[in-house]
Amino acid sequence: MNTSSSEHHPKQKWEKDVKKTTERFPERKETFHTSSDITINRLYTPKQMDGEYIEEIGFPGQYPYTRGIQPTMYRSRYWTMRQYAGFGSAEETNERFRYLLKQGQTGLSVAFDLPTQIGYDSDDPMADGEVGKVGVAIDSLKDMEQLFDQIPLDQVSTSMTINAPASILLAMYIAVGEKQGVDPEKLTGTIQNDILKEYIARGTYIYPPKPSMRLITDIFGYCQEYLPKFNTISISGYHIREAGSTAVQEVAFTIANGMAYVDAAIEAGLEVDDFAPRLAFFFNAHNQFFEEAAKFRAARRMWAKIMKEHYGAQNPKSWKLRFHTQTGGSTLTAQQPDNNIVRVTLQALSAVMGGTQSLHTNSRDEALALPTEDSARIALRTQQIIANESGVADTIDPLAGSYYVESLTDQIENEANAYLERIKEFGGAVQAVEEGYMQREIHQAAYDAQKRIESKEDIVVGMNEFKLEEEIHADLLRVDEALEQAQIEKTQQLRAERNQAAVDQCLLKLKEAAGGTANVMPYIVEAVKAYATVGEIANVLRGEFGEYSGM
Amino acid sequence: MRMKPIRVLIAKPGLDGHDRGALIIAQALRDHGMEVIYTGLRQSAIQIARAAIQEDVDVVGLSSLSGAHKSLFPKVVKALEEQGASDIPVIGGGVIPAEDIPFLEEQGVKKIFTSGSPTDATAIYIKQLIHKRTINAPKKIAHIGIAVESIDTALPFYQHTLGLEVEAVEKVESEQVRVAFLKIGETMFELLEPLSDDSPIQTFLTRKGEGVHHIAVEVEDIEKRLQQYKEQGIRLIHEQPKQGAHDSQIAFLHPKAANGVLFELCQQGEGE
């Protein structure tokens, strides 16, 4: 199939693809015009297309995908507007989900509380004070059923920010689907499932790197068979950037991690073209507009080359870097929080200029607390305004051909490749993480940035310049402190009412599977269906795998 | 001055894994010459208290971004108390709404630094907190300085209305000022009259008109204080003591350091 691509000029190939795509997904309008009735072309290209243009920039939907992964990009469909939400109880979060869907959001994104993310039940002493704080508390399938109550899983795609216990929450999602009568193969969505960046930047790890990598490849194998439309991992630069990395480091470390997952899956006996099309990425949209747009373009080109040339993937779907973007949380200021709306707008625009597949825009109050409903709506409206009013989605990759942006794209790729070389010298990302290499690089960049802000070399409006005297923060969202107790009681009641013998048996079987080499996923699915809790399942695996205790 | 550096324990209580802030503050405090121990993630209150005691730290800094601070920070204070180490002060930072600060302070947390606080502010605060014990409180107000257009016109109020006695009237050429001292109990009023347009008192009168100009506090450790203030980044007008009246040594702090009040440090000469 890819040999035929070389027979035609890439432009003709692209035009053929456009025809095929628009038959399935017609463009939003017959023709696109500016306010002055100037016709907007689908794509603008240089007058002379030399070999370098074809090889490095090319056409949307064509290798190396610098200009985007689909032939018509946002002319057919806007990016998916996907706001991350979750707090308190499953019932409350379910209400927020249904509110967001009613407001025109097109995908769900679940935030879990920290005990869930680290595999503790709400009544575990380690969960003290954290239940329902940064996301929804999920202990058992019962909570998951409430979380998706009246939300048909065959009609929404759901992204779950879950890593170390990803297999458990995915198993619960499958079980909820079955209860709704939805076959696993119809489920769409993403689990984050990116453990390497947890060691590097985000901190919600449970097990040591090696068994963690095995859980991930078990998920790859299971989903390939039963959930072919589900994204099995979202390889995340977002948190690496939030921890203070530069744009180049974000791309480099994310791609290095991505390669580690591909290596692990191949080592586990999977065929690259069987799992690679389900790999997804997750990036940050930070402040410097052009650098960010260039970063997305560079990342796409790098991944395509690596998958095709390094891993020899044959299926073009394996070459395409599909990514979700979230605007940079750490760029938001607690001072004059309304200014954050403007920051988010610019960051979101850079993600759209970079060709993102889905986008989360942060709420203005996130430097202070979890977003209120008002703030969450403004954040969603920001995306809707960019999509519907600005006209930036009417032509593909409008920044292409800018001397500046193309040069930035090249330089980011070069510098990120230099990092990949260094990581290769360590023996790959897993080793580099274990030796703390990425952590140190990020920390140095973060400290330098902080010093620049404190010396006012970098201006942060409202924080170190253009300040206001007094600020009162009205209307912050507070998680009810009584929630923790209610959640604990709910889980304890569940334990009293379920068939304990069935739970024990499922956990025993899981223990055996984990101790051997079998894929653990089917055992986890059985355990959650018997209402074994997140903590119980994670504890069985802790017993077999051990716990990671940090650097 | 203490010879050994301040020791700080930076800790992440709870499950929150975001330690960019904790790592940055740790390095900033090291840059300020402190010895910093970072606990790593997911520490319980008891683990933090034990580490603080074992490491013999002067202060514990907590960081939390998950919203669990109201439950976690007081637990650390309590754990320190229970381990007999209530003398180790606890400070905190992270994503903490201003409304929660009074509650946390009530629970024994000394100070909260919210997001956007410069790292230097934290360092300065810790130095003040720890060095406080080595500085003696000023003994009294040496005098209150009052700027006047003319001493001769102002004196009748002080002499006749208040009934005070004039102690001395002097010219200080270096400051282009004429001063009159009136004793009141153990302290004095100092009337200041400009001798020329270059006088700092003239500048004050032009900007603000007549009124209270400065407060002088009597100290016994002027050089040590100035040294320490300098390290702590307190804004000073004089970094070294200068000669005042009657063999005294004086130095002015910048009014920006003290909510717009001009303070003078004043140390009496040996002879008095």
Automatic annotation (TrEMBL), chain B:
InterPro entries: Acid_CoA_mut_C (IPR006159), Cobalamin-bd (IPR006158), Cobalamin-bd_sf (IPR036724), Glyas_Bleomycin-R_OHBP_Dase (IPR029068), Glyoxalase_1_CS (IPR018146), MeMalonyl-CoA_epimerase (IPR017515), MMCE/EMCE_epimerase (IPR051785), VOC_core (IPR037523). Residues 140-268 form the VOC domain. GO terms for biological process: L-methylmalonyl-CoA metabolic process. Its cofactor is adenosylcob(III)alamin. PANTHER family: METHYLMALONYL-COA EPIMERASE (PTHR43048), METHYLMALONYL-COA EPIMERASE, MITOCHONDRIAL (PTHR43048:SF3). The gene is scpA_2. It holds the Pfam family Glyoxalase_4. It comes from Halobacillus karajensis. GO terms for molecular function: cobalamin binding; lactoylglutathione lyase activity; metal ion binding; methylmalonyl-CoA epimerase activity. The lineage of its organism: Bacteria, Bacillati, Bacillota, Bacilli, Bacillales. This is Methylmalonyl-CoA mutase.
